[in-house]
Predict the 3D structure of the following.
Amino acid sequence: MLVKRIFSQRLFTFILFSLLGLITFLGVQSLSAKATLATDRMRTQVLTTNLLVQQGKAFYEAGQFSEAAKIWQQAADAFAAAGDKLNQASALSNLSLTYQQLGLWNQAKDAIANSLSLLNTDSSPLILAQTLNIQGFLQLSLGQAENALDTLQKAAAAYKKAGDQPSIIANLINQSQAMQALGFYRRAANTLEQVETSLLASPDSIIKVTGLLNLGNTLRVVGNLDKSQQVLQQSLEIAQKLGLPGATASIQLSLGNTKRALAKKTAALNIIQTPQNETQAALELYRQAATSQSRNTRIQALINQLSLLVEIQQNSDAQTLLPTIQQELNDLPASRTSVYARINLAQSLMKQSAVNSNPQQTTDIAQILAKAVQEAKNLEDRRAESLALGTLGGLYEINQQLSSAQTVTQQALLLAQVIDGSDIAYRWQWQLGRVLKAQGQNEGAIAAYTEAVKTLKSLRSDLAAINPEVQFSFRESVEPVYRQLVGLLLQNGDKVNQNNLIQARNLIESLQLAELDNFFQEACLNAKPELIDQVDRTAAVIYPIILSDRLDVILSLPQQPLRHYSTNLTQNQIEETLEQLRQQLGRPSSSRQQIVRLAQQVYDWLIRPGETEIKNSGVKTLVFVLDGTLRNIPMAVLHDGNQHLLQQYNLAVAPGLQLLEPQSLARVQLKALMLGLSESREGFPPLPAVEKELQQIKAIVPGTVLLNQEFTGESLRQQINAAPYPVVHLATHGKFSSSADNTFILTWDGRINVKQLDAFLRVRNQVRGQAIELLVLSACETATGDRRATLGIAGVAVRAGARSTLATLWPVQDVATATMMPQFYRELATHGKSEALRRAQISLSENFKHPYYWAPFVLVGNWL
């Protein structure tokens, strides 16, 4: 659902800062009560300002932010007239917080700047701390994560001076989010551990319960779902023990969200069986939270329960719940909460309506959204109004009321742009593109889609980084924008002009980058635009992209215009063929004739239409920028009817040329760090041929060997930094997954995931200024049942600091690997990486003829 998926990170951070803001409100009242009243006039003035403070607090808590902003401005003016700079500053900081809720960023910046100008180091440390906290969140919202972290750390010092331990804990949670945005994962994890330690050491109290609740929510936001569940369970047990029904309901709601996220994560990783127990547990927690005395908690729990019931297609239960929700909404005062509740309700009903095709339900949904639009207008909440209008536009689009859909979507987009709400603007740009395309206005559709992609690029850190709900909805809320635009640009077949081909190729590169950002949950990759002529004049690049109704291929040959061709097959047909081929390749007992038949089919899609031009160009290397399930297929196995592609060309896979550093391997300096496990560890079977493999490689390439007990995480880190090894060879178990946390290599003393490996290698690059030329992972495999697992190979390749990575697509027979790897290093002494690999694979295929043995080796990254 739109509100919960895309905005949960921002809204949750608002909750944390709002909690601190509420303390500020109380601080104003307390300070005012201490004022010396010399006259009745002064007493009346103070009482008036106190009333304004209470009104502002009430409006803010009710989600009536426009009214709250007016009151806070009046309070600030009243304090200014009284010469009370301290409380004026406090009111202005609360005004800034309220403007941030409304998405009025310029006004928010002005208010916080005015607040800080009234404060100094001698001011009340509590008000200074809370003002700095609000400034920190503003900076984080504006993408200024480094400034935000600095500001939040200053706020922490002020809180410490004020002796406000609960606020220090909340501040540390906010700091961890800034660290996450900056990519400081280890620091963020340590900070959250520090928070947990402090909370668990404190006596049971409402403060401890709230702190654990906030920590659990933050852990969910940063993707640590198992830990989030554990912390929220602790918070729940304490709340129940202390008899705190309000807090208990809030925790049940949050715990339900975490369990739902766990179920969604499992489904997103394409694991065969989604854990129904997590889904059912989430439903039960929502039911319990729906008994809360708090209207806001109650309606959120009911709405979440409904959306989950619709998601798992328990439509009769969803229908039973509807009257209760409608009654709750009717009783709920107008606020952002009520607007968002109506939008979320409408989105659930739209999903259900798409299945049931119920005209009456469509009318009901339109009325719900019309009410949400009107409430948002009355509240002067333009962000909420944009969301409501955009959702209404989506309803019109579903019902093919395209003219109305266009008008309403344009209104929603304008509002989003006025408040600089890029995180929702891209959705309305995308929606507008779809609507214009449906009306045959392709030029306007391309323009709208292009703007959506530009907006997405500006939101890289917000969309890709922290929020797991965004991560798991990437395939439905981000990826289609790129694919549908590529489809529009290439829809004229052979008549596509060069400008459209260039734009489409750049989009495919950008999609690769966005997928890797999403894999790492951070915008960590720096693209460097490269053209094939600049990388290698003897290489061609092939860009296939799988669309819903066809497979498009862009062919880039050196010093030639781009070429384009299409195959009209549905996505399901393409993926079914690819899956059959992958299954056949993964079994040494499968029929080679069946493999050749399927491999020839894929050859006909990717190579055959450009076969003549490729041969005539004289290229020696084919570089594939692969899409989707094509990544699961080794291009070496493609077959033209006479021979495999491996026998004709050097082959490489690139996660986009923008991520390459074109540089040949300096063979005169070839030296390797070789590490391996031959014994069984953590339930993984032994690899008895590893010892022989490493001994043979060491006889060819000088270097250091660490085997079994010598191969630990710490020894890897030390050796990588001790000497500038151009080659790192890891002969050990490992797994590639579509989740960075589940992509790892096995050492004697545990697992090293891709982010930890990156941390090891990044230090080396910073200290020595030398990238690893080649990282070899000779016994790793892709996760079974995870259709996007090969993202893990590309992830290791681009984050390990290595210019090239040699990996395998499935578990390879131990002896075959030990045979091929030494041959690869012999060839590497006189040939480039891709040619050395080809020669070694051909040599292996002479004794191990089935593609199961020689095909899974893929070179990712630079092939020179």
The first helix runs from residue 2 to 33. The longest strand covers residues 772-782.
